[in-house]
Each structure stands twice: as structure tokens, then as C-alpha cells.
Design goal:
Layout (H helix, E strand, L loop, with lengths): L4 H12 L3 H8 L8 H10 L2 H13 L17 H12 L5 E7 L2 E7 L3 H23 L1
Antiparallel strand pairs: 1-2
Length: about 140
């Protein structure tokens, strides 16, 4: 699964300077003040993001540490996917939402819409069924 544009910008910032707040501001320039930690949590809950940060840091320091192998980010496992869906179902993965303010459009993070929760429940059920089918064969 590829990173979104916002995730890629955040990963780049984390690799280059390691400052979470600066990286999240680069990724979400319209982020409303006070929602920085929610945005960081949202980005880091995607298992692809920390994996890309780790791989990028290894790549940057490869010349300093001879013999360093640089593996690509590991693909998502069934458990990773299920965990992400559980975060949505339990309301722990907030959703980015734009609002209109006097300063224009601003980004905040809110609880996931009910439709997203229902979709996540259906997807989790499908993944669990697929996992059970793998054990049968």
C-alpha cells in the first residue's frame, strides 16, 4: 500500500529533521492549532508510516555505517490490517476533517463517521473470514 501525499511529506520531514511537530505542520499546512498531537497519532497509527521512516533513516546513514543493509518497508500483514480496522471501530483513529474559519479552511481531527465505522466492521469481518479460509486449505 502506497503512502498518501500527506504521509509521504510527514515521513520525509521525520527522516530529515526528526521533529514531529514540524513534520506534521509540513504535511498538513492548514492544521488548526491544538490538533498537532491528533495528527501525529493519526499518521503514526498507519503501520506503513513508521516502517518508511525507519527505512529512510537507515538509507540516510548507510554511508556512515559500512555494511548496513537497507531493507524496504515490510508489507502490511493481516494482523496490521485488522489492528487498523479495530482502531476505527473503537473510535481511536480520528478522521481528518476540514472546517471553515475566519482564516479559511482549517483541518481538525474528529471521531470517525458512523459509515466509516460500519465499513470497518464489514471489512474486519471479511478479513477474519479470509483468515479462517486460509487455515482450511
Amino acid at each position: 500500500m502506497a503512502l498518501s501525499a500527506n504521509e509521504a511529506i510527514f515521513v520525509r520531514g521525520m527522516i530529515l529533521h526528526g521533529n514531529k511537530l514540524a513534520a506534521v505542520r509540513e504535511a498538513y499546512p492548514r492544521l488548526e492549532k491544538g490538533f498537532e498531537q491528533a495528527a501525529i497519532k493519526y499518521l503514526m497509527q498507519n503501520p506503513e508510516v513508521p516502517r518508511h521512516i525507519d527505512a529512510g533513516i537507515l538509507y540516510m546513514y548507510r554511508s556512515m555505517i559500512p555494511g548496513t543493509s537497507i531493507p524496504g518497508p515490510a508489507p502490511l500483514t493481516m494482523a496490521d490490517k485488522m489492528q487498523m480496522l479495530r482502531l476505527i471501530i473503537e473510535g481511536e483513529r480520528e478522521t481528518p476533517t476540514y472546517i471553515v474559519t475566519k482564516q479559511g479552511l482549517r483541518l481538525i481531527f474528529t471521531e470517525p463517521p458512523e459509515q466509516d465505522v460500519e465499513d470497518a466492521k464489514a471489512m474486519l469481518k471479511e478479513l477474519q473470514l479470509a483468515e479462517q479460509m486460509e487455515w482450511v486449505f
